[in-house]
Specification:
Blueprint (H helix, E strand, L loop, with lengths): L14 H6 L10 H10 L5 H7 L2 H4 L1 H26 L10 H9 L2 E8 L2 E8 L6 H15 L6 E3 L8 E3 L12 H23 L1
Antiparallel strand pairs: 1-2, 3-4
Helix pairs in contact: 5-7, 6-7
This protein binds zinc ion (ZN).
The site of zinc ion has 8 residues, from helix 8.
Length: about 200
């Protein structure tokens, strides 16, 4: 049974950012969590995922090898996106995990309708299990070549800190999600104002 409750909402607007958001940095992503993420992000179909979930029993070494790449990629993406949020440059070595995957995997681009509009998305040709990471690596590479002015942000709620791509017209989006962090903030400040008014009267 795949765990789904530990999954963050896919709010980032870019696959690579959603992947970087998968868990706090210290937490190792399990195989089931990784496969569930791929399904939620529509990188693989649920049917494909049903065949991927049991692989740790049949191909434990291949799964371990890919999980190492998963963690290495996520670590480098988090570091790169932190740098991007702060508009700081990052060393070439940080892009190596991405380049390793771009080298290993072949594929093609496909037009896919998304809530924010049509997107050109990478579909990997299967070979080994690395292809599972190809679309994420490609999405990260596209984000990096957008340059330091790409609107990569972190949620303004300090206890959240999820990355997202601010595709809003004004580029002033502050929250991962208005419904979760934005509202919580609004509610908190409403209560503060209300309490202050009560104290004043
Ligand atoms: Zn948030």
């Amino acid at each position: 049974m795949a765990p789904t409750s530990t999954h963050p909402r896919l709010i980032a607007g870019r696959l690579a950012l959603d992947f970087a958001n998968t868990a706090p940095a210290a937490h190792d992503l399990s195989w089931d969590e990784f496969v569930s993420f791929l399904v939620n992000a529509r990188v693989v179909t649920p049917e494909r995922a049903a065949r991927l979930h049991p692989l740790p029993q049949t191909e434990p070494q291949a799964v371990d090898a890919v999980l190492l790449k998963v963690l290495r990629l996520r670590e480098s993406l988090r570091a790169i996106f932190y740098a991007r949020v702060k508009k700081k440059p990052f060393p070439k070595s940080w892009a190596e995990p991405i380049n390793d995957l771009l080298r290993l995997t072949e594929g093609h681009d496909e037009l896919v309708p998304r809530s924010e509009g049509w997107r050109l998305e990478f579909t990997a040709r299967e070979g080994g299990l690395e292809w599972l990471l190809a679309a994420i690596a490609r999405s990260a590479a596209e984000l990096i070549v957008e340059g330091p002015n790409a609107p990569v942000r972190r949620c303004a709620n300090p206890s959240c800190g999820l990355f997202f791509y601010d595709g809003s017209r004004t580029h002033r989006r502050r929250w991962c999600s208005m419904a979760v962090c934005g509202n919580r903030r609004k509610v908190a400040s409403f209560h503060r104002r209300h309490a202050a008014r009560r104290r004043e009267s």
